TrEMBL record:
InterPro entries, per the entry: MSP_dom, NTP_transf_6
Record-given protein name: Nucleotidyltransferase family protein
Residue span, MSP domain: 126-184
Keywords, in A-Z order: Transferase
One Pfam family here: NTP_transf_6
Phylogenetic classification of the source organism: Bacteria, Bacillati, Bacillota, Bacilli, Bacillales
PANTHER family the UniProt entry points to: BLL1166 PROTEIN
GO MF, one example: transferase activity
Species assigned in the record: Paenibacillus oralis
Length: 184
């Protein structure tokens, strides 16, 4: 797996991932996708040759709906996903309101725009399922860092202390020893 095609093919070989993607697609969320650790950890597991997936804390589901900024809507989507897949810890967030939580002045323009402000480039990757099991990848910073096992601070994320704390707290360098921390 060294490019977008390889990542898509690897995901297509994972029935559990396809089921999760179908569940999200069926909600019909505008710009709906699964992102963050769900995709990042899977890619790093595959690239490390792990036969078992590293356990997930949660499944981050993103969407973009500037017409409904009510957090209660997110909770309803989480409940619907939990009803379908109760063993998952679903976390649904409308990226149209996340700029407020993240202390940004300007609203994000899309799911992909919101991901530009995440701490790491390798985390800013999402996957969306279209009919016919057509997988779309969203990666505002590209896939190079993710697929070359590099952990780099996103250019739009300005808090280097938080970036370093995340790398340490999440123990990525221990879990995936081939990762390379890039500090610029």
């Amino acid at each position: 797996m060294n490019d977008a095609t390889g990542l898509r093919e690897a995901i297509l070989q994972q029935p559990e991932m396809l089921e999760d993607l179908r569940a999200v697609a069926e909600l019909g969320l505008p710009q709906g996708c699964i992102a963050a650790g769900y995709v990042r950890n899977f890619a790093w597991d595959v690239l490390h040759g792990y036969t078992r997936r590293t356990p997930l804390h949660d499944v981050d589901v993103l969407y973009y709906d500037p017409k409904c900024l009510d957090e209660a809507a997110e909770k309803q989507y989480e409940a619907a996903l939990r009803a379908r897949s109760p063993l998952r810890n679903w976390s649904v967030k409308n990226q149209a309101r996340m700029h407020l939580r993240n202390g940004e002045k300007a609203p994000y323009r899309s799911v992909e725009d919101a991901m530009r402000y995440w701490p790491e480039t390798a985390t800013a990757v999402g996957v969306r399922l279209h009919p016919g099991d057509d997988i779309e990848l969203l990666a505002p910073w590209g896939l190079d860092d993710l697929l070359s096992l590099k952990v780099r601070q996103s250019p739009c994320f300005r808090d280097t202390v938080v970036f370093r704390q995340r790398v340490t707290a999440k123990e990525w360098l221990r879990l995936w020893p081939r990762l390379q921390l890039i500090e610029e």
